[in-house]
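Objective 1b. Sequence-to-structure analysis of Transcription termination/antitermination protein NusA.
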Amino acid sequence: MASINLIEAFQDFKEAENIDRPTMMKVVEDVFKTLLRKKYGSDDNFDVIVNAEKGDLEIFRRRTIVEDGAVEDPLAEIAYSDAVKIEPDYEVGEELYETVEILDFGRRAILAAKQTLASRISDLKKNVLVKKYGDRVGEIINAEVYQVWKKEILLLDEEGNELILPKSEQIPQDYFKKGETIRAVVKKVELKNNSPVIILSRTSPSFLAKLLEIEVPEIFDGLIVIKKIVREPGERAKVAVESYDDRIDPVGACVGMKGSRIHGIVRELKNENIDVINYTTNMQLLIQRALTPAKITSMELDNEKHHVNVFLKPDQVSLAIGRKGVNIKLAQELTSLTIDVFRDNEGEPEEYDIDLDEFSDEIETWVIDELKRIGCDTARSVLDLTVDELERRTDLERETIEDVKKVLEAEFEKE
């Protein structure tokens, strides 16, 4: 039987894991039955037998032997006189099996078959990849950095499949070199130009959730449940957890003895601060916990408007707002509320103060916004802090801070 050098095509099948043998046989059979239909008009009386190990195949034609002159369907029947020319022992009524030579299809048809087969294998590989990673969305995988570009990183998994880690899915402090192995979560599988693109992420809340699941056996076992995670990648994260076993402290279990469990995760996330809090349906208590590390004096909660006014001691305001406003932003995401922070001056003598916005003609708006971002929305709240502290908490230059303080002090001197 003439081989048409299909060994390379079969080798492609073997390299694509998870393409099972029956699927392989079916694809090859379909390709050659298409050739048979083009040549004979039907494939009903043909058997295609694939030898996957040798990389070749055989095609047999089946016809029933009938009396001379009684042939009604040439594809399914053969006259007795023609049958005995092939094998003298044949008799009327028997089945005649005849080998169809591949070369009989012609060089052009054979080439087309090989191209079709290669295309079908390629499609199968894509489908296998889509299914494999479609089933792994939300899982952590290890992959090797193959190429680093400005907007994305190309990685290879253990089977050599290409994966993409976009810049937008990288932690700002991430820096990777070719050959490094990195961990990321499978975010989604897209199809671009009919090719699967596997997108990874290190900024997704699910990445932190999976890291916790790896480090905290109680989460893996379902004794502790992660209710919600909010992140500002590389800066801060808040994780609300709940225990289904009263004997287990969910926060303590997640943090570990002396922070043993959480430290590894913090390092993986480039020193991202992680606040683990006890979840509760008591909204006021949840708000207090969400604004950790700040301590709230009192609050006015409006559930209908999804809004809360929070009152804190002056020294707690900047803690509630956090660096670059990250803490309050995450607290709002965690509670699904709009949170406004106010100073609680109860019990202190009323002191003359001026809103920072009143100085917009002398101080640039962006400077005022930066001061308000850390909770300094009045003149005295700025003056109460040292230049060093303001420089540490804001993105303002020391010279700018000193100029602002002079403007504010001058206003009080007038009074």
